[in-house]
Fold this protein.
Amino acid sequence: MNALTDLRREYASRALGEQDAHVDPIQQFTIWFDEALKSQLIDVNAMTLATASAKGEPSARIVLLKGADEDGFVFYTNYDSAKGRDLTANPRASLLFFWAELERQVRINGSVTKTTAAESDQYFQSRPKESQIGAASSNQSRPVADRSHLEQRYAELAEKYKDSLVPRPANWGGYRVKPDTIEFWQGRKSRLHDRLLYTRQADGSWRRSRLEP
């Protein structure tokens, strides 16, 4: 474990100056996301989702971004899952994107609401049928005796819906994180990283400030 103290590398590939960053953080996120796509990174839309229970106990996991615009950042899951229960009790969340090859992070904090049923229906029906059946057959985050029980449930639903559409389960759908703050982090030489923080104001506008590394 002592070798961990020797693990380090220099960050020096890019910079993030105020003159280069968009005044709108959503537009800046789009710019960086498009650059990550063009770089052909694996799972470019993977993000860490951090939630907290009613008691303040934190929990984090990787989910996939499925929408991003002025209204917020969208992901889909089982509402009865551990993260769903957290968000019911404490409807705030933090998102983190880490694109190591570009030496970049984006941190997003904000309030969380469910997407509309129509939005959830539309996305659910756009998924591969196997994924639809997987969602319908899983009591996410709940104990299961063994894998065979899960596979049996999947097989039963696959047979049931082999010639028809799979209805979206009522307990499955989307969440939208409406950001209060968005921070862009660019790795720099000598650990003097660039950090630009955008904070939403009462009138909906954004105030930008530079943070020390």
Notes: The helical segments are 25-38, 82-89, 117-126, 129-137, 147-160. The first strand starts at residue 46 and ends at 52. The CA atoms of residues 81 and 140 lie 5 Å apart. The chain has one domain: 9-125+170-210.
